[in-house]
Amino acid sequence: MSAADGIDRDAPARLRRQGGETLLRDLVRSFLTRTPERLATLRTTRSPRVVEELAHTFKTSCRIIGALGMGDLCEALELDAEQGQLPDAARLAALEDAFARVHAWLTDVQRASP
Amino acid sequence: MSRPARLLVVEDNEDSRLLLGALLADRYEVALVVSGFEALDWLDTHRPDIILMDASMPGMDGLELIGRVRARPGLERLPIVALTARAMRGDRELFLAAGFDAYLSKPLLDEQLLFDALDAQLRRARNGTGRTPP
């Protein structure tokens, strides 16, 4: 299931089985739309509470769509925020890099979708 | 044939709601709400056979919500299953001590585990062998 680049390429087939093409399409669209907004909030907020809640729900979205590496980074941000820490710049950069790879992958998934 | 069980799902993450709605709609009569506050409002006028709730939600988390649900007359023994994205040691004991009947980890890679957990709790409730309130 897990892959070296943090992308679970079995996820689209699993989601298609669980809810058909509509579920997969809706989840991919939701992820590609919401992620830039979430990353922007993580970069700009000064509230660890906001980071904790956002990183928690972001983590769930990442793991559903198969972006496991992004999910792990969100979990690290969530745990740091629980201790009152704002996002570490290196971790945010890693999350943005990971999203660039996931974005390219999900765009291919969208193209391949009937 | 008997009616499908009525399931209340409490989940703040939209993607998780989409997934749960798709998974559960063919087997149960599903109501989806986005917060503990909405769940309590819904329970003012409806009676589910079972509740599936996210344990970590902003505003009112699952531990607070289950306390409020269990305090309502007639809901002391209602089957309630927790869904959680946390997989910390000790969480299982924490959730069971808080009154949850079962505990599942997100993401749901194998939907059969979810169906089995829900159906087992529904059977227990029907047979009158549900949990004993503290």
**How far is it from the N-terminal to the C-terminal residue of chain A, by CA?**
24 Å
The residue-averaged pLDDT of chain B reads 90
Radius of gyration of chain A: 14 Å
The two chains with the largest interface, and their residue counts, are:
A-B, 21 and 16 residues
Pattern of helices and strands of chain B:
EHEHEHEHEH
Spans of chain A of 5+ residues with little confidence (pLDDT < 50)? Answer: none
Structure description:
The complex is a heterodimer of chains A (114) and B (134). Chain A has 114 residues and is mainly α. Chain A has one domain. Chain A is built from four helices and no strands. Chain A has helices at residues 11-44, 48-65, 68-82, 89-112. In chain A, helix 1 packs antiparallel against helix 2 (48-65), helix 1 packs antiparallel against helix 4 and helix 2 (48-65) packs antiparallel against helix 3. The model of chain A has no long low-confidence stretch (mean pLDDT 94). Chain B is an alpha/beta fold and 134 residues long. Chain B has one domain: Rossmann fold, CATH 3.40.50. In chain B, 40% of the residues lie in helices and 18% in strands. Chain B has a five-stranded parallel sheet, sandwiched between helices. Chain B is globular and about 35 Å long. The mean pLDDT of chain B is 90.
